[in-house]
Amino acid sequence: MPDATQRVIDLYGGGVALVPGGVQVRDQSKLRSPATDRLVWQAVFESGDDRDAARWLLWELGQVTGARPASINDLYLARGRGECGGFTVPAINVRMMAYDTARAIFRVARAGKAGAVILEIARSEIAYTEQRPAEYVSVIIGAALREGYTLPIFIQGDHCQVNHKKYQAAPSGEIGEVKKLIAEEVGAGFYNIDVDTSTLVDLSHASLEDQQRLNYEHAAEITAFIREQEPEGVTVSVGAEIGEVGMKNSTVEELHAFMRGYNQSIAALGDHAGISKISVQTGTSHGGVVLPDGTMADVKLDLQALAALSQAARDEYGLAGAVQHGASTLPSNAFGSFPRIETAEIHLATNFQNIVFDHPRLPAELKERIRTWLDENAGGERKSGDTNEQFYYKARKKAIGPFKRDFWSLPEDVRNAIATDLEKNFAFLFEQLNVNGTQEQVNRFIQAPMQHHAALKPVLVAAADDPDAGE
After folding, report:
1. Total count of domains within the chain
2. Are residues 194 and 341 in the same domain?
3. Low-confidence winner among 132-146, 377-391, 393-407 (lowest mean pLDDT)
4. Residue 450 domain-assigned?
5. In the chain, % of residues over pLDDT 70
């Protein structure tokens, strides 16, 4: 694609040049200009060679500036050894207005010298937000370039989840679909993967080992598969899950049952690195619980259980600790507790989506078009007894993909107003989670090898429209 490549290089007006094996940045200020906005738009909304050239250039610019996709694995293992701690890594699901949202994240991270930050997307979100992994990686790198962020970027495949019903019908087929998605993600630059086989936990068995058996056996199988996909010099950070979010709370005994089985299973498959963290259930639910009047129900979070699980994960198995899902809709006074009890990571999504959908500057006509679309296309989401407020709140995420261009095309002043409110929320969370200043730990423990692409390689396309796993 020589012509398309030269056209994207020319967007920077001499600030970027082609050199053997990649590109050279001759004027850093050009990366923080509207030229990057145009490049990212092309990477998302164009097609064919024009799209691929934009994605290639974004990747190469990330490589030479330091904003490279990286694995957080070594930092997490260092935490398991007790060499760092006192902070909780925010894993932020970037669903809508992805470029503006990611830019807000990087502004806050750069200002606070926060390096231990994850940007992620779940299997279900890939479908309803219409963001395949290669696009997602391009947007995140573009946002980092625009904001002058030059630390390694931790991009995560959240909830690479096995659908229970599909597994019951065709076990190998459903596991195969998860593997296909993971291959696509790792190939695109997702070097952090959360394997979610917790849907296979069977509480009807008497022993904890038997309850967790399918969970740990398939988690080990998928971990071994991930190791086969890794580029040279990268050990993907893999997480597993012992309790499905929204179900019964996890216990330390369940953690032990899972880890004993997982470690035996992964060892039987070869000399593979295992997981670096463990997701647990301690009282939250994805998206929170919306009441008939549209307000959120209070959450009963079991911090004592979370602390015990995190400590056992570190002390007994050398993991970073426990991971808390479904956290963004918790009350604001809850977040300071997570670093205090050494929670390794928390997942945050729905509240950022809510900030966009409920923003006072969002045009009323767009809101009305979205509601009309939901009435016509998401009626199956409405449960008997749902009020309109409950239905629209729960279903509106399904409109993110179909209205992606509308949100990206909002007037600049509207997008800036939304981004400002997102930025305030990120700044509060980063402070509460004590993640500011963690660029020192990232620089100490993380090596992000440079990886040049001759051109963006085609990747596998996997179905991602079944498990509704995102927060």
Report:
1. 3
2. yes
3. 377-391
4. no
5. 91
